[in-house]
Design brief:
Layout: H1 6-16, H2 26-36, H3 40-58, H4 62-72, H5 84-95, H6 100-128
Helix pairs in contact: 1-3, 2-3, 3-4, 3-6, 4-5, 4-6, 5-6
Length: about 130
């Protein structure tokens, strides 16, 4: 089971590789991931992030996907400084007329979905091997 903050780190790493563009297709994402990542575990994490964003957009949770993009992708993949995530949440909440707690809940929804998709990929891989 991944650690609690591994989802946030995976979202940030996804942005570091330039995968945070909305118009990115699955084929383009796979090419970039294959070229940039050397280990299978990191590739699975990035694929899980891609799948998370697509599932959120497809299931009427576009708000959660937008929150992930605005909060975790705003730093272009660099490690966030102290309180930077909190400030990004506050900016997103104000810009979208939401309460900060609602934004945190949306981010938690995205993190849970990421964790379930990542663990499903790992268990599928373990069955094959």
């Amino acid at each position: 089971m991944p650690r609690k903050d591994s989802a946030a780190r995976a979202f940030i790493e996804y942005a570091r590789f330039g995968l945070d563009r909305r118009e990115l297709t699955a084929i383009d994402a796979a090419r970039i991931i294959r070229a940039a990542v050397t280990t299978d575990a990191r590739a699975l994490k990035l694929i899980a992030v891609y799948d998370t964003l697509r599932v959120l957009c497809a299931t009427d949770n576009a708000e959660a996907a937008n929150a992930v993009r605005e909060v975790y992708f705003s730093g272009q993949g660099r490690v966030p400084r102290k309180n930077e995530i909190g400030y990004a949440v506050r900016r997103f909440a104000i810009a979208n007329n939401m309460d900060e707690r609602t934004v945190w809940r949306r981010l938690e929804t995205a993190k849970r979905l990421y964790t379930s998709l990542y663990t499903a990929q790992i268990s599928r891989l373990e069955k094959i091997l």
